[in-house]
Amino acid sequence: xxxxxxxxxxxxxxxxxxxxxxxxxxxxxxxxxxxxxxxxxxxxxxxxxxxxxxxxxxxxxxxxxxxxxxxxxxxxxxxxxxxxxxxxxxxxxxxxxxxxxxxxxxxxxxxxxxxxxxxxxxxxxxxxxxxxxxxxxxxxxxxxxxxxxxxxxxxxxxxxxxxxxxxxxxxxxxxxxxxxxxxxxxxxxxxxxxxxxxxxxxxxxxxxxxxxxxxxxxxxxxxxxxxxxxxxxxxxxxxxxxxxxxxxxxxxxxxxxxxxxxxxxxxxxxxxxxxxxxxxxxxxxxxxxxxxxxxxxxxxxxxxxxxxxxxxxxxxxxxxxxxxxxxxxxxxxxxxxxxxxxxxxxxxxxxxxxxxxxxxxxxxxxxxxxxxxxxxxxxxxxxxxxxxxxxxxxxxxxxxxxxxxxxxxxxxxxxxxxxxxxxx
Length: 424
Fold this sequence. Notes:
Blueprint: H1 3-7, H2 14-17, E1 22-26, E2 29-32, E3 37-40, H3 43-46, H4 55-66, H5 79-93, E4 100-104, H6 109-124, E5 129-132, H7 141-144, H8 150-153, E6 163-166, H9 178-187, E7 198-201, E8 204-205, E9 211-212, H10 215-228, E10 231-235, E11 259-262, E12 275-279, H11 298-313, H12 316-335, E13 343-347, E14 350-354, H13 361-373, E15 376-377, E16 379-381, E17 387-390, H14 398-417
Parallel strand pairs: 3-15, 5-6, 5-7, 7-10, 10-11
Antiparallel strand pairs: 1-2, 2-3, 4-12, 8-9, 11-12, 13-14, 14-17, 16-17
């Protein structure tokens, strides 16, 4: 029994999924104390879009620390914060004509979602929120109320009131017309559901099973919100920061959410940071009305600036486009044929292999476990954790991406050969 097993709470999860003692990491490789190397198709659950210990970002941090730069300042004005705001505005807002103000929240994504919900209610004077089945937005009480996963909700022992869950545009409900359904709810005097303050969504439901919304559906959703005066909140915490190619996952659809939540890779180095962007007309806060001790992570500001610069110099948008084409082709042509009805879904550098049709919840678990034994970190998501999620760093070398896919294919073949679902 390790000291972690002996003293850390039972709530720990990833140390069980990846049972090794890690000591170092570089780029898309993690190293254990016993010398084993792992190709990383996990990327810190999306917090390491630029890889482990990115050299450009690390140098910026080292320079700042050695200069005795401010490390903690709550929401005081600092050079690090001003530089981040100026850089982000120049590189990500101005080019896309986005007129957002910045709100720095607590250190993690759930803090940004909490602030978004609270702001939407304050700005509209309405209480209700519409969220989507399959959505994941965090596990603190406010964000948990808009998270649909029963496993996480049941741990709270509190009813998550004032939230209506709507079938997602795709998901397990197929071609369900969620927009018309919401129209009917609001137009029906006997629906029993009031007009909400906001609708919160992920353009790609990552933890929900890699379900990708279409441009047309996102555009229809935006028009629906505008017709009814409902705020549109985009949770870009996991699939933003360049994961799909564009920095914002909603950009390709041409929509402009009222509120955008960012975290995970916004700092670029795995440092805690979350951020809300929203229309100036929504800035209804009174000074200090929503606060937090760690809402100004100075080291994260420095790293985030370097990450934005690195993104431009490394042409990560084009890199993601190349890797998207490779992954789509490989997964569709090599892996989807290994058993009947294996579904492949994804966009950019986030893809899912859905094994739900095998009707055996242990298959995905066994494949992920065997991948780990073969030096590949891969996570499971979706209903019953039946979807293998591929989410490597955006700058992963093609050779490593190809090797990781080969290891995954070998493990899948070995596991599916031992079941009756094998087709050849």
